[in-house]
Amino acid sequence: MLLKAKKFLTIIIFTLLIASLSAGFQPVDAQNLEGELEEVQFHFIDAGQADATLIETSEATKLIDAGHWQRNDVIDYLEDEEIEELDLVVGTHPHADHIGQMEQVIEDYQVKDAWMSGYEHDSQTYENVMDAIDEHDVTYRTPRASELT
Hey, what domains does the chain have and what are their CATH numbers? Predict the structure, then answer.
């Protein structure tokens, strides 16, 4: 039970860290603010019970998780939004309801970087995603908090 709680907490912290970094989060001194703030768009993709979030700024487009492997919600949404490339895809953990469509995303879109939690899984979905990362020369990282400060 304690191990399950630790994994859940790790996933939550990793997701929040990635979301804040992906949004270009930086402390701002309001008195010294010059110019305009960058617009950030968050798209919470309805992927049933699964998860997927698209983050768009003028600098980059990022996808956190990619829905369930038995659905096409994320692929369809990216197509509807006319997304052509993704600077970063993030798999918060290797379960099929989070990285399910990531293989297809990597195959269909030009993806520059992929970040995963570092947890491995013996599922075919996980293996397919890792193979797609290799096949399409996507830069792979397992970020750690100590590297991001």
Answer: 2-24+38-147 (3.60.15.10)
